[in-house]
Amino acid sequence: MRQPDLSLIRRFSGPITAAPADDALQGMQTAVKIRPALAVDPLDSYDVVRAVHHAAAQRTPVAVSSTGHGATSLNGGLLIRTHRMSHVTVDPHTRTADIGAGATWGQVIEAAAQHGLAPLSGTATTVGAVGYTLGGGISPLSRAFGYAADHVVDLDIVTPDGRLRYVSADDDPDLFWAARGAGAHLGVVTRMKCRLFHIDRVLAGAISITVNDWAAVTDRFVTWSADLPERTGALLSLKSFPDLPNLPDAIRGKRTATIYVTSIGAESDAADQVRALGGIVRESPRLTPMPPADLAAVFNEPAGPHAFQGDAIAVSDVNAEPLAAGLGSLVNSARPQFLFIHRLGGAMSREPDQGTAIGNRAAEYLVRIVTSPAPTDDPTAVAIEQDDVLRSMSIEPTGRVPNFLFGDNLGVARVTDCYTAEDLRRLGRITAPVDPDSLLMPARGRLDGAATAARTEDSQYREPRGHQDPGTCEVNSHG
Ligand SMILES: Cc1cc2nc3c(=O)[nH]c(=O)nc-3n(C[C@H](O)[C@H](O)[C@H](O)COP(=O)(O)OP(=O)(O)OC[C@H]3O[C@@H](n4cnc5c(N)ncnc54)[C@H](O)[C@@H]3O)c2cc1C
């Protein structure tokens, strides 16, 4: 491997680490290995320009990392870590937040709440606001307000050709379109401005399900959620923990089902909607009124670093009968497995002015599988098992969703499945001139010409590549 020439970035303001130790760059995801030749922690956009110029001069690939929630393994190249660029400035008059590349949703939520405003953040406050939004960004409030990316006003980006560009609907409409949904494929976004919402209170709750028959629960959830108004969001979470000695007694050998509901509607309407779930829920399920800043607590996502691997497909319809077959394989897995069914639709199905690169606008549901792999597990074996579960559910995918392709699962899942063939061609035309030497390494893979051609000619899934014995498990649970 070529040795990095540190003299090229001597005017860099932030820390530089050559060949960092294995653990030094560990973010939220522990199932991947981050081993760049050089890691740099820029303090501002100009530092990012210097780092990218350095990489271009060395012909070294460039990767970006903020919190590491969406990380995949990295071997060599230059890693730009944005965590020191974490400013958040809220303008209550325009109801917008100016967000540095390294800011988490928790920081944005806190700054916005001081003005009675809220962003379209997700289920975990520790996720990076920019990384989330560049991949679309599905909030518990997205059925009411759309994807987070639909509400980007403008941004600054350093493209791999070393240029710092201001991007907005008027100033660079192509990059603006691509940044909203495929932003990780364009360069290093250093700042983003997005709209905030004036929301007094949200009604939210996690509803425990008593029924042990997951197929019946799923059937009820799908029928019930199909008719929900846009102001109500819904998510079904099914978790299966095998009977393994290394799991705590509280969850070992157990299965749980929970429905998460969020509503910005009237309290009586929301209560009626929850009651309509009928006999599958414990008595008197209640939604609690809360400020939007408290919403993430309802979802109780893991707070610290852990290992997780995931695939996610968008679908126009979920039919509970064939789905039951997939649920059976999920339960029989030797690893902890989690299946999430998100109700999409509502405002997410409407393209905003100027359009976005977000695929799957017409999808009604998002089906996600997340596995908690053991350190000894081969990511490809885990990916194949996940793929088998999804395939056995016989659901017709409209495509994949970039934000939820977790870990090194790309032996099966492809980032190109996240975009329509037409959008992939447009993305190719946009990225080629700004990354002429193909230096950028987005976490989930490049949208290069070969992949683009494959996506247009091939089916949604690759064939599995053979199985491997599952190992022991650690416990993690999302949602
Ligand atoms: C517990 C948990 C909960 C989640 N909840 C939600 C949710 O509710 N809704 C949702 O939509 N998603 C959710 N996600 C997915 C999350 O949005 C993605 O994993 C996202 O990529 C995380 O961004 P990050 O910057 O935090 O992570 P990182 O791992 O730091 O970044 C992931 C990748 O994004 C790209 N990237 C990040 N920053 C930049 C930048 N400044 N410029 C260019 N590219 C960049 C890079 O390719 C980078 O490798 C969740 C993930 C987890 C683990």
TrEMBL record:
InterPro entries: FAD-bd_PCMH, FAD-bd_PCMH-like_sf, FAD-bd_PCMH_sub1, FAD-bd_PCMH_sub2, FAD-linked_Oxidoreductase, Oxid_FAD_bind_N, Oxy_OxRdtase_FAD_BS. It comes from the Bacteria. One of its GO terms (molecular function) is FAD binding. The keyword Oxidoreductase applies. Keywords: FAD, Flavoprotein, Oxidoreductase. Signal peptide: none annotated. Transmembrane segments: none annotated. Residues 32-199 form the FAD-binding PCMH-type domain. Its cofactor is FAD. SUPFAM superfamilies: FAD-binding/transporter-associated domain-like. Residues 455-468 have a biased composition (Basic and acidic residues). The keyword Oxidoreductase applies. Residues 449-479 are annotated as: Disordered. Belongs to the oxygen-dependent FAD-linked oxidoreductase family. This is FAD/FMN-containing dehydrogenase.
